[in-house]
């Protein structure tokens, strides 16, 4: 089985959001005051499992659990165990803010989660709190260390770079990744949702981030590709650390897009930067025992997967959905 979209792109990667809620309120992801979904609008654990099985049955080989913060969803470890055991799935991975990892890293490895991405935008406790609006840096650093020691095949940091907020910390964040023996990716901020500030003022292109790193390290271009949008470099003197650049605004990567996203409301998003969606929650609930209509909707939906996003790079909102709704 394999899934192919209307222009021949092979789709084998599902990003599955397990909650829209979060213990942080990062300035680039959420507004200060957010209203979260009422419980009945959120997919149950059983519905999430059914969708995962259905997508894997149709050819998806990699699932990333995300959110919101996936580790605050009750029952998350059991959900991971069930999904990781699906025959045909190559890897189950996760993106987390790290706040719960000191406690959960090991259970997640035992449940079958192969790799962990952890967001880290600053190494300064006050700045970290300002960016996340209420995050505790120490708790996250403890979580990163727990993840490093827990036995994941890879741990990677994700950092959204913003001028005037954390751009000056890029060298320190690279050094931290080197010291931990893990990878780090620098992400350009995307214009998703009205977060109550103009993103254009703080926007920082990946090429600038790369130039700053190149002042401190000899960089070796790498052709490594995780099938995703990141471009990687290696550090000549620290081979264990890879540095990624995710540049949705300055380097369009839509031609090789291999993914779709499922929101926790059961909306299948065909593109992060467009509004096209298919309502799987309605189908799940209308056909509790018959996957046929869901498979047909998936295959039909993929024919309408947009060619590309329309982020222009001026930082203004182009998609009203917040990132916590899209599933990062
Ligand atoms: N809560 C988890 C976390 O923060 O890692 C998972 C969900 S979060 C939405 C997934 C990723 O999206 C994080 O690395 C976060 O930094 C990134 N992100 C959120 N809003 C963004 C935006 N507007 N532009 C670029 N990246 C964003
Ligand atoms: Fe929460 Fe992650 Fe969004 Fe930050 S980026 S508010 S941690 S979902």
Protein described:
- The chain has 328 residues and is α/β, with parallel strands linked by helices.
- It is 30% helix and 19% strand.
- The protein is built from ten helices and twelve strands.
- Helix 2 links the parallel strand 2 and strand 3 (91-96).
- The chain starts with 12 loop residues before the first strand and ends with a helix.
- The mean pLDDT is 92.
- Residues 22, 28-29, 66-67, 69, 95-97, 119, 158, 160, 187, 189-190, 192, 323-324, 328 line the site of S-adenosylmethionine.
Q: What's the total helix number? A: 10
Strand segment count: 12
Please state the average pLDDT score. 92
- How much helix is in the residues? 25-40%
The largest sheet is:
12 strands, mixed
Oligomer: single chain
Distance between the termini: 27 Å
Shape: globular
Written as H for each helix and E for each strand, in order along the chain, the element string is EHEHEHEHHEHEHEEEEEEHHH
The kinds of small molecule bound in this structure are: S-adenosylmethionine, iron/sulfur cluster
Sequence of strands across the biggest β-sheet? 7-8-9-6-5-4-3-2-1-10-11-12
Low-confidence stretches: none
Overall radius of gyration: 19 Å
Quick take:
By secondary structure, this protein is an alpha/beta fold. Helices cover 30% and strands 19% of the residues.
Search tags:
12-stranded mixed beta sheet; binds iron/sulfur cluster; 328 residues; alpha/beta; binds S-adenosylmethionine
Give the SSE map.
Blueprint: E1 13-17, H1 45-57, E2 62-66, H2 76-84, E3 91-96, H3 101-111, E4 113-119, H4 125-132, H5 137-150, E5 154-160, H6 170-180, E6 183-187, H7 206-214, E7 219-221, E8 231-235, E9 238-246, E10 259-262, E11 267-269, E12 277-279, H8 280-286, H9 292-303, H10 323-326
Helix pairs in contact: 1-2, 2-3, 3-5
The chain binds S-adenosylmethionine (SAM) and iron/sulfur cluster.
